[in-house]
Amino acid sequence: MSSSLQEIYDGFAKTYEQNRDQFDMSAILATFFNQLNHQQDALLDLGCGAGEPVARYFIDRDWSVTGVDFSSQMLELAKKYVPEMKTIHSDIREVDFEPDQFAAITASYSLFHIPANDHADMFRKFYTWLKPGGQAMFTYATKEYTGSNEFDGYKEFMDQKLFYSHKHTDDLYADLENTGFSIESAENINIGGETFLWVTINKDN
Ligand SMILES: C[S@@+](CC[C@H](N)C(=O)[O-])C[C@H]1O[C@@H](n2cnc3c(N)ncnc32)[C@H](O)[C@@H]1O
After folding, report:
1. Which residue owns the Cα nearest ligand 1 atom 3?
2. Which residues pair with 185 in a beta bridge?
3. What pLDDT, in 10s, does the model give residues 114-166?
4. Which CATH number fits domain 5-13+23-202: 2.40.50.100, 3.40.50.150, 3.40.630.10, 3.40.50.2000?
């Protein structure tokens, strides 16, 4: 029987320390952070994993961070690396928050693991949960990673078959704009040999 994504990430937690520095996101995080409209506010990090590097980066700059992840083992690591983060053990599709709670939302290397058909719902939730002037950043899979303009299937990562899903970028941008977001930037960036689309969106004041 094949393992669920949750089980695979629980397994990855065991080798996390050996692979800790494989993906250097410092430039992306700095770019996002430096253009935020709110300062020293609240961040929601969806698919937070071990709390690195995103939660660590924000907490070091006096933000409060809520992290959501469905892997209990990754959250155990987060307790060790980022004890200041408030964690919620849940599927990111199942959490809910009051409107206007967060000045920023991140979904770093996580949104592409949920079916593309659920992405527009997630964006509507981002819009509700963000304060006016709030911004979100997420990693999106595209043709550069999956080989297709649209994809729903499995790709190998660290000897495991992981589910990835994405729409055509034109459909992604339409979903974002229909939700009310303006697209600040969308750029293909190669980190550690993997190219993904990094998207920053704004909820206007
Ligand atoms: C590649 S890791 C990224 C971790 C971290 N955000 C980073 O940038 O290094 C993906 C994380 O998303 C979590 N994840 C994937 N799908 C999820 C879902 N539907 N609900 C909650 N967490 C999910 C996994 O458990 C894993 O910790």
Report:
1. 109
2. 200
3. 999 999 999 999 999 999 999 999 999 999 999 999 999 999 988 899 999 99
4. 3.40.50.150
